[in-house]
Amino acid sequence: MKSITRDGSKWVPEYLAAIDEKICIGCGRCFKVCSRGVMHLHGVDDAGEILGICDGEDDDFDGELNRMVMVVDHAGRCIGCGACGRVCPKNCQTHVAADQIAA
């Protein structure tokens, strides 16, 4: 699937497919630039298990919170703009070109 920009240039959207939670530092930069709510911060315990969405209200998951990572929880909302990948300091995201995704 190729798109055309306003000036007629060809462009292929690249959709956010995954975030490597072992590399992600949970800084939230990608979340802040995403206008579509594609990802959210989730808590992780000492064993590396995802605890759930961190809603910012002193949620420590009964003392089990070790760190936070970003998780793609609404991939279908992604428009393929790539803003999240450009602001990620760890380059932990995987994007897939629209023409590589099955309909």
Describe the fold and architecture.
By secondary structure, this protein is mainly beta. The protein has a single domain, classed as Alpha-Beta Plaits. 10% of the residues lie in helices and 30% in strands. The chain contains two helices and seven strands, in the order E-E-E-H-E-E-E-H-E. Strands 5-4-6 form a three-stranded antiparallel beta sheet, with no helix packed on it. A two-stranded antiparallel ribbon has the order 1-2. Strand 4 and strand 5 (50-53) form a beta hairpin. The longest helix is centred in the first third of the chain and has 5 residues, at 29-33. The chain is elongated. The mean pLDDT is 91.
Topology of this protein?
Blueprint lengths: L2 E2 L5 E2 L2 E6 L9 H5 L5 E6 L5 E4 L13 E6 L10 H5 L5 E5 L6
Antiparallel strand pairs: 1-2, 3-7, 4-5, 4-6
Kindly state the mean pLDDT as a whole number? 91
Report the principal-axis shape.
Answer: elongated
Kindly state the percentage of residues in helix: under 10%
Q: Output the structural class.
A: mainly beta
Largest beta sheet: what is the strand line-up? 5-4-6
CATH class: Alpha Beta
How many domains? The number is: 1
Number of strands: 7
Distance between the termini: 10 Å
C-alpha Rg (nearest Å): 15 Å
What name is given to the CATH topology?
A: Alpha-Beta Plaits
CATH architecture: 2-Layer Sandwich
What share of the residues does DSSP label as strand, in percent?
Answer: 25-35%
Total of DSSP H or I helical runs spanning 4+ residues: 2
What is the ordering of alpha helices and beta strands?
A: EEEHEEEHE
Organism: Mesorhizobium australicum (strain HAMBI 3006 / LMG 24608 / WSM2073)
InterPro entries: 4Fe4S_Fe-S-bd (IPR017896), 4Fe4S_Fe_S_CS (IPR017900), FdIII_4_nif (IPR014283), Fe-S_Ferredoxin (IPR050572)
Function: Ferredoxins are iron-sulfur proteins that transfer electrons in a wide variety of metabolic reactions.
Protein name: Ferredoxin III
